[in-house]
Structure formats: C-alpha cells, structure tokens
C-alpha cells in the first residue's frame, strides 16, 4: 500500500508537472501575442504621432495663410473705403459742375436775348438810315442781314474786315 501511494504521488506530481508546462506554454503564447500586440501598438503610435505632427504643420500653414488673407482683406477693405470716398467726392464735383452748367446756360440765354435785342435795334436803325450801327462780330452782322458790310455801310468796322480790303464779314 505504501508502494501504491508512492506511485500515486509520483503520478500526481507528473500530471501536475504536465499541467504546469501546459500553463507555462499557454502563458508564453499569451506573452508572445501581447508582445506582438505591443509592437503593433508602438508602430501605430509612431504613425499617429507623425500624423499629429503633419496636422500641426498643416494647421500652422493654414493659420499663416488665414492671417495673410485677413491682412489682404483689410487692405482691400481700406481701398474700398477710399474708393467710396473718391466716388462721393466725384458725385459732389458732378453736382457742382451741373450747377455751373445751369448758371452758364442761363447766362448764355440772357446774352442771346440781349444780342437779339441789339440785332433788332441795329436792324431798325439801319433801315431808318442811322449810321450808329455796331456789330460785335460777323455772326451778329449776318443775323441782322447786313453781311457783307462795306466801308461806309452802317455797322462797318475794322474788326469785321480781317483782310483789310474794305469788305467785312465776307
């Protein structure tokens, strides 16, 4: 009996030794898997770190570009403001010129009326035989029906006779 107990103990130890070997092999296999997984994670970490660095570099470039575009925008905004001011100035100048044109047209109208009155007076005087007729220029003489005017005619004056031949407003 003692011998059989001893055999049983030896068999139990050998079975328990095999069980420990299987557990050790199992653990070694798990360690290998975990080591491989750890290496894979390290590689993935390196890849992600590179991506983060690239993204940070791109972010810096985009921020610089944004700042540049903002500066450009501010410059364009200032130019637009200056152009708006110039446009306002030009509108004011146009308004002033339109006022001046209106005034000059009124002056021309007044002068035309006076000239027509003078022509009518000159025509009346020339038909009545007066010698005091005066024509400011050849247009006035023509409008009065007196062109060409000759030396001795009513209204003849040297300023109407450019070539000095005695006949004005030829």
TrEMBL record:
<keyword id="KW-0175">Coiled coil</keyword>
<feature type="region of interest" description="Disordered">
    <location>
        <begin position="144"/>
        <end position="170"/>
    </location>
</feature>
<dbReference type="Pfam" id="PF04977">
    <property type="entry name" value="DivIC"/>
</dbReference>
<feature type="coiled-coil region">
    <location>
        <begin position="17"/>
        <end position="121"/>
    </location>
</feature>
<feature type="domain" description="Excalibur calcium-binding">
    <location>
        <begin position="134"/>
        <end position="170"/>
    </location>
</feature>
<dbReference type="Pfam" id="PF05901">
    <property type="entry name" value="Excalibur"/>
</dbReference>
<feature type="compositionally biased region" description="Basic and acidic residues">
    <location>
        <begin position="156"/>
        <end position="170"/>
    </location>
</feature>
<dbReference type="InterPro" id="IPR008613">
    <property type="entry name" value="Excalibur_Ca-bd_domain"/>
</dbReference>
<dbReference type="InterPro" id="IPR007060">
    <property type="entry name" value="FtsL/DivIC"/>
</dbReference>
<protein>
    <submittedName>
        <fullName>Excalibur calcium-binding domain-containing protein</fullName>
    </submittedName>
</protein>
